[in-house]
Request: fold
Amino acid sequence: MKNLKLVSRETEQCTVVKVCDVEVGRGFVVIAGPCSVESEEQTLETARAVKAAGANMLRGGSFNPRTSPYAFQGLGLRGLKLLDKASRETGLPIVTEVIDPRDVSWVAEFAHVLQIGTRNMQNFSLLKEVGRAGRPVLLKRGMYSTLEEWLNCAEYILSEGNPDVILCERGIRTFENYTRNTLDLSAVPAIKELTHLPIIIDPTHSTGRVSLIGSMSLAAVAAGADGLIIEVHYKPEEAMCDAAQALTPKTFTRLMSRIRPLKLFLENLPN
Ligand code: PEP
Ligand code: MN
Reply:
């Protein structure tokens, strides 16, 4: 691929993105939490549950890019303060989305990782801004984007001086509509061929169905992903967004107990 001066794989070496004491690109990292921060109780209860299950980071949106302008858009600053409280209590670093270049510098004061959502993957002014924010960036794949377009967006961030980019495959649009999107798991080995950056899988937004999340999470482990980002809600039936795809703490705990042995098994496979 042409002009990928900074993200392309030149050697065997892989980038490890350090977020507090979590290393993305070494071992296997699980990010979990609600789609959106809704209340203190919901955020703290969910954070405690995912921590107890073994998650490494807490996710939660405070600025939610929604398809409809009338849907819940997030709590903004109030939500970030709740995430901060949950992070201080559990010790989990925060991954949260930023949607406006004007918000990047102050959101970065609360976030340990700045998430760029699928709908903003090619928002070039936002990419440049997070490239200067001094925080790791979780760059989701645009739902209509090729791997080359995606990697060019990562190149924007690196070219502004920020080497800490985590790629996230979250499903792409195809003719299939049983699932919310189509999870492109082949992106994992392909990305490993093309770049030194770590890649994680989002089985939540790619499937949109609780019943499919477990299988696709295990498949992501087998495909060689560096981690997962999964939506968990302490009471999914009450979730203000993405309710049909949020795992309960119990289901998430069960999934976590299956991920680690699978990872271990794969590490011991002959080459
Ligand atoms: C999210 O992570 O809550 C989200 C909106 O994801 P995506 O940008 O992949 O749709
Ligand atoms: Mn969501």
